[in-house]
Every structure is written in structure tokens, then in C-alpha cells.
Design a protein that fits this description.
The protein is of the alpha/beta class and about 575 residues long. It contains 23 helices and 20 strands.
Length: about 575
Amino acid sequence: MRRTGGQIVCEALLRQGVEVVFGLPGGAILPLYQTLPEYPQLRHILVRHEQGAAHAADGYARATGRPGVAWATSGPGATNLVTGIATAHMDSIPIVIITGQVGRDAIGSDAFQETDITGITLPITKHNYLVMNASELPNVIAEAFHIATTGRPGPVLVDIPKDVFQEETEVADTPTINLIGYKPTIKGNDRQIRRAAELIQKAERPIILAGHGVIFSEAYDELRTLAEKTQMPVITTLLGISCFPEDHVLSVGMPGMHGMAYASLAIEESDLLLAVGMRFDDRIIGDPARFATNSKKIHIEIDPSEIGKNISVDVPIVGDAKHILAALLKLAPTKTHPDWVKHITDLKKSHPSLDIRPTDKLLPQFIIKKLSMATNGEAIIVTGVGQHQMWAAQFYTFKNPRSFITSGGAGSMGYEVPGAMGVQVGQPDKTVWSIAGDGGFQMTMCEIATMVENKIPVKIAIINNNFLGMVRQWQQFFYEKSYVATEYSHNPDFVKLAEAFGVLGLRVTKQDQVESAIKQAMEYDGPVIIDFVVEAEENVYPMIPSGQTVHDMIEEPRQTESQPIS
């Protein structure tokens, strides 16, 4: 059967179960777009900016566990994807990017809109391809999805010259995948798992540190059962949030630079650290030489290059978290640690990171706590990067898996709008809230038009302090309040902006307006933008300065009473 390259790509995507593609056309990829009408079951969402396509594909993948797909044309179309690709790469998100390229004869001639996108993205993709013959496309697309979704997930880019989309070739019925040397380890080493069980048996102050890998492997039940059987408290990394229910008695929250003080202290005082599907990021460990020096360490991780990279461990176990935790469950002892659990409870009382100080001012913490209560902790929360991201991680109580979605490793401002759009497309029956910074929102707010056009009902809460808040906080703490290039003196009127886009816009300036605004947004059938005008110089606490340890932690000055939230 003869097919054009464009037809081959569409059919290959459908074979992989792809239902939606986020993209924006241009000359080099136009032949692929002209093929789309032949495949009505392949939904295409036309974004306003290619960065939005990459972030939307990323959000879709995080929310569903299925690979997201984005398209763009050559040159600036492809380079506009780079931030989104880097975001997915840092957080191990399975997305497949297809870019158009100038015709084969023009490659290397500096033709109009020619850019070496495979060269540019080499450091930020798990793998990439430049396909020079249409006959290669079935196998390449199949390989791209296999690589993106197996082992440690990640982005894969496929660059296709314009005339390859147009070329006709004979197509085999079934593509083949033959990746010599690519065989990710899934099953953990039995001897190492036995050693881990022995350490758990001996431990008196154990902690589980659960990361993003628990979500990738969907090891929620195994993690919870192991925690309950061994009575090990569970701390989650920023990207591990929602892998363990935060209303569980063994939940201790997030540690690190802006994590709960008691979580960081518990790690410091533990005698056993069971790290699952996480990479000992610098925002958690601070100074590697002074991190959790009192504990033995077990590290379960599917990517062997991460084990021992930042922190030396006593028992390394390479493999998939779900498989390894299931095997560990069979060997792990049934234990209790009442004194240790009580000690952590006491730490929560003596270091109350989630208290909200009494004030009449509108605080971001108050807003997010109210949102958590209004949604019963069951919405999907998507954030940008900065102070609002940390407050969302701290003050929203996440009960369901895959319900906290954010840019972690790359820290990409502007993720909040297109990321939430992709999440809502992937989970159309769920309530999706984007908690946005006023700075990050303005970077990608053009995708509000895409939401309206495609009836994507994301609710957006702008935490509007007229600052690049996290940068301002650093300037306050470490640069003697020298606020250089961090204040927005003329933000737009976000309510009028909402009206211009054709969505509901609300403004909230007082505490007693918060509940009704959230309720109105939830009842509205369509996208909503709420402009929460908050205290301008509010800070995120606690804070461990970069490269320091829990002993250098800055906690919020203690108040005589905290503000009740009801």
C-alpha cells in the first residue's frame, strides 16, 4: 500500500492511540496539515504560540499518563518549542514532538526558516531523529513513542523535511522496533531488595521520600501499603505531590527549600531514608555533604545514572518503582514506630509551617486554603513557577493521584496557562484550576483564546502581587531589599482582559470575597479568570537558602495566634 509521508505520520499516530495534537502550521509542515482532513479522528488544537503547544502536550501527558504530541514548522516554529521540550526533559515527561524541516536539497544552505532543531534539542531530548526518507517514518514514529514512554520517560523529537511529507512510498502493515542496547531495567535486583528489607527491619526512625517516579509507575497502592505495613511516614518531593494522599496520618508533606520545616527536620533526624523515584534534586538536599548524614539510604530509581550522582546511597536498586515496591512489600516487616510518629507530630507543632498569620490583608495562603476546601482537595491544580507555586504545594491538600502539575526541574514561568489547557483536554471531566503568577500568566496568556475556541473550561486564579514575587523575595533576603527589575508598575486590567478574550473575569481584593468568587467560577460553564489582588511583599516560608541545610532554615516569625480558616 502506497502512502505519502504525511499519511504515514497520521496513521502512525493513530496506531499509537493518539487522540489529540497541539500545533501551529507553517510552510515546512504544511503538507502534514493538508493531510489532516483525511483523519478526522485525530483532533488538532490550534495554539497561539508553539511554546503553548509543547506545554499543553506536557500537561496532557502528566494528567493522563499517555504521551502528549505537539507539531510545529521549521525555524522559529521549532525553536519556540524549546522551552517546553526542556521542561519535559527535566521532569521526565513523555511527549513526542514532530517538526517540519526545509526540503532535503535545501538542508545546510541556510534556506528560509532553516534551523538545525535536532542539534539544538540534542541536550534536552531523550532522543531525536532527522528522517530523510518516507519509508523510515513508520518505524521512527513507533520507536519515538517507545523511547518516550519506557524506562525513564522523556521527550522525543522527530524532524521531517517538507518533501518527505510529500514523498510516496510502499508501507508495511506493521512497523518494527529494533533498538539495540536500549533495554531499561524494570525488575529490581532480588539481593538488593532483601538488603532494603533488612534495613527497614532495623530502622527506628525511617522515612519514605517519594518522588515523580511513583506517579510515572502508578505505584500509589504499593507505596501506601508499604507505608502502612511498616509505619514509615511519607514525605513527597515537589513533583511527587499527589502520589500519596495528604490527608493520610502518615503524610508529612514536602521538604526542601520551601518545604515544610518539619518535613526537612524529619529527614535530618531519620536513621533510614527510602527514596523512591526521585533524583535528590538540589532544592531538597541543599549542601550534599551535609544532607541527612544520620541515615542509611535506599534509592529506588529506574535511571541508573541518577543513583549516586548527588548523594551516596547504601542500597541502590535500579528498576520500576511499582515492581520493586511490590517485591519489597513481600519481605518488609510489619512494624510500628509510635515514638517516631509522635516526634514528627511534635515537630509539626513546634515548627508550624502551615499557620496563616492573623491579618485583614488578602494573603495568597488564605486563597489557596479556601480553594482546597471548596474543591475538597479533588481538583487538578496546575501552577506556574514562583511564590504561588510554593504556596499551592504547601496549602492545597491533594487527595488524588496526578492532581498537582507544575514545572519542577526547569522552573518554566508561563507553564500555568497552556499546561492547564493540556491537562483539561486530557481530563475533560475533572475540575482544573490554574494557579498563576501575574508575571507567568502574561508570558502565555494568548492561549486563553485557544481555550475559548475549543471550549476548554480551565479556571485561572491569578495571584497578583505586581511583582516577580520569588525574585523579589530573594532580593529582600539576600540583596538588602534592592528591588531591581522585579516590580510590574503597570499590569493590565485582568478583568477587562478576560472580557476581551470572551471569558468571565472577576476581581477579588478582600478576604470575604474569596469564597463567592471561587463558587461563581466553579458554576460557570467555561474558562474563568479571577484576579486576586494580594499583599505585594508577602514571602514564602520556610526558606532554606540555596546550597545550605535545614540548620540554616529561615522560618516565618512566630505569631501569638494563627488565622482560623473556616
